[in-house]
Amino acid sequence: MSDFALISQAIPQVFTVYNMLLIFGGLILGMVIGCVPGLSVTLGIILMLPLTYTFDDPASAIILLLAVYVGGMYGGSISAITLNTPGTNSAIATTFDGYPLAKKGKVKKALDTSLFASVFGGLFSAVLLLLCASLITKLVANFTSVEYFSLGIMGISLIAGVSGSSLPKSLISGMIGLLMACIGMDAVTGVTRFSFGSATLKYGIDMLPAMIALIALTQVVQKLRDFKVAGGKLDDARKIDKQGITKKEMVSILPACLRSSTIASVLGAMPGVGGGVAQFLCYNEVRRTSKHPEEFGKGCLEGIAAAESSNNAVVGSAMIPLLTLGIPGDGVTALLLGAFVLHGIQPGPTMFTKQGVMAYTIIIGCLVANVLLAPLGLGMTRLVAKIVQVRYTYLAPVIIMFCFAGAFAATGNTKELIICAGILIFSYILTVLDIDNTPLMLGMILEDIMEQNFVTASMSYDRNYSIFITRPISAVILIITVVLLVSMIRVNRRVAKLNEQQEAQMAAEHAKMENA
């Protein structure tokens, strides 16, 4: 069946009343969660996962999660602009110009610029996803278990390469995730591994409670700790004025949006990059090519546009490696990979041949979510901005309740609550040791795929393990993995340097203001 025929069948499935309501609800929820400091897009997806168990159509479940993703990426800019506190990690660069512009009494202009750039970047990458996904799939249609194992190595290595400030610690985290996923009964031999005689661990660790503990609950505990250290103080949200962005200003920031969206789409399609890296590179590039670079950091609209169009452009492009290769493009799509697996969807080259309509339903759903973000953003931003005034001591208990309810809903067994609590303690210890748990989570997700393909490949080639480097495609994948790892390490260093420069600049400006 041709791609056009698949798309024609997918469109009616997206534009049902049910799916449209899911998209609206997901966008609003994403905006709220993205806006509140301490919450995140990953937390929103974690909270929605148990709810999607009741869905008859797996595509509807993924569409809802993608809508939360899209809304959350924009929502992070609201608190970045009004409080100088990014709601998500991908909104850090938005504070550089968003908050200074808000301090000048132009909050509405800053928020409108953020919304315009977010929609532009999101649509740019969603169209790119629609046009390129099937083509990439056809290029990798002849992959065997050897290549799939090499892709698993690429996924873990690249995520580890851009997680945290220490590559060795990130690699350790990924290895721990692989080990944790090995707990329980081996799917190939039926032998119980690493259960230590515990009936609770006999059947392994369920993915959903693990993700809830690693991401959602750990973030809540960290935020409560920070909230207590800060004495429960949080700046009030600023009053939003009525002077928004003009058409002339929209035209003036289009080059910045286009440049950032293009760069971020390329970076987002590289597994492991994500919006956190893309925003800094795009911000720096737009500043470098701007006619007025001296205005950046002082409330420049181009700066806001560069930051917001870049992190939203990553949403669609990060789905390209996920759908075509089965490799997540960033931490959020690693969660989406878990959602795919939980709903019986196997992303990768075979998805467009065996589940083509579902694949395009998900892609078009992502496109529609970005289109609807514009009217919802205009109508809901003022209301959502007020939510950041809610004390976190009120929000945290509600979030914890939903998290443990979601862990219990995974299997309906109380043992999941014990496992969830145990992993939470372990995850918090890792954060104290400055070890990122994103590679750990990805290791748990990819272990099953890697192990099965490794066993299949070794049996098919009579335990000739050199096959992983002698088969041309596998060798190329491994070489690309090494090259990208080295390049990402350099990128991380450059981003860290940019961060230091920005902090030094802000400290110098703050000192000048105090002296004045």
From TrEMBL:
Spans traversing the lipid bilayer: 20-49, 61-81, 115-136, 148-165, 171-191, 203-221, 318-345, 357-380, 392-410, 417-435, 468-489
InterPro entries xref list: DUF112_TM (IPR002823)
Keywords: Membrane, Transmembrane, Transmembrane helix
A Pfam family recorded for this sequence: TctA
Keyword flag Transmembrane: yes
Record-annotated DUF112 domain positions: 20-442
Identification of the protein by name: DUF112 domain-containing protein
Species name: Faecalibacterium prausnitzii
